[in-house]
Amino acid sequence: MALVTMREIIQDARKRMYAVGGFNVFNFETLGAVVEVAEELKSPLVLGIPERLFKFVDVDTLSAAMVRAAQKASVPIALHLDHGYTYEGMMKAIRWGFTSIMFDGSSLSFTENLKRTKEITRIAHSLGISVEGELGYVGCCGTVDIQEENLVQPATAADFVDKTKVDALAVAVGNNHGTYRGNPHLHLGRLTELTGTVHVPLVLHGGSKLKKEEYRQSIQSGIAKINIATDMSLAAAENLKNELAKSPGANYIHLMSIVKKGVKDSVRRYMLSFDCISKAI
């Protein structure tokens, strides 16, 4: 099993109608938690870290641990740079040995997003590395009401994929990054249209806190990867607060195990909702 490209994993997910979890990690505890649950449930995994965390985390050390964990794993794992914004950040991920990178040009004009994504894809594919692009407006923290003009248009998406040659496309269909305030509304009809027009697997960002049925419906409508980050962080913090309230004198080693348990419980719930159990190739 071990280290594979994201392309291999998500193509299988689309073919067999499940979604692989794209779980972002930020330290050794979260890394261990996600990999252990994937192995326990025999689930393929996309293990990521976003570029914005580079200034908070010793990424050279953490990335080396991610590579080692993937190489040792009993399930297929792709290592993914999530939301890469700079050429330097993406080149770092390539040097670390990651098998997948995402260029997020969604804040750029369509023309500039296409131009930059196409160039990144050309470089990555020459090295056997998968690429994920993004189109449309994915809000943050539920603070913006997603309007029709923010949603991805099928013809635009098809043109983008055809010209950039990306392996996966993250699409805006009413989803939000971060913690939702109120009830999210996924435009499943638009997802279905995109699936019929775009011939690469689709990715759902802002996957935390949707209902189980919404995950199933999004998978049926074409989603092959669902990104999770916020809820893992919240689960870790909640477990930590609860434990400190009960045991203010708890030592740090004990608290690390509590954090890890919270993350594992969160990851397990999501994997069960994604229908990816026992799908390891």
UniProtKB/TrEMBL annotation:
Q: Which cofactor does it need?
A: Zn(2+)
Please cite one Gene Ontology biological process associated with this protein: carbohydrate metabolic process
Active site at: D82
The residues listed in the UniProt record as binding Zn(2+) 1, with positions renumbered to this chain, are H83, H177, H205
Q: Identify this protein by name.
A: Ketose-bisphosphate aldolase class-ii
The protein's superkingdom reads Bacteria
Binding positions for Zn(2+) 2? D104, E134
Q: Where does this protein come from, organism-wise? A: Lucifera butyrica
- Keyword Manganese included in the entry's annotation: no
Q: Which PANTHER family match?
A: D-TAGATOSE-1,6-BISPHOSPHATE ALDOLASE (PTHR30304), D-TAGATOSE-1,6-BISPHOSPHATE ALDOLASE SUBUNIT GATY-RELATED (PTHR30304:SF0)
The record's free-text note on cofactor binding: Binds 2 Zn(2+) ions per subunit. One is catalytic and the other provides a structural contribution.
Q: Which UniProt keywords apply?
A: Metal-binding, Zinc
Which annotated residues bind dihydroxyacetone phosphate?
G178, G206, G207, S208, N227, I228, A229, T230
Entry's Gene Ontology molecular function annotations:
aldehyde-lyase activity; zinc ion binding
Q: Which CDD domains match?
A: TBP_aldolase_IIB
Tell me the InterPro entries matching this sequence.
Aldolase_TIM, Class_II_FBP_aldolase, FBA_II
Listed Pfam families: F_bP_aldolase (PF01116)
Q: Which Gene3D superfamilies match?
A: Aldolase class I
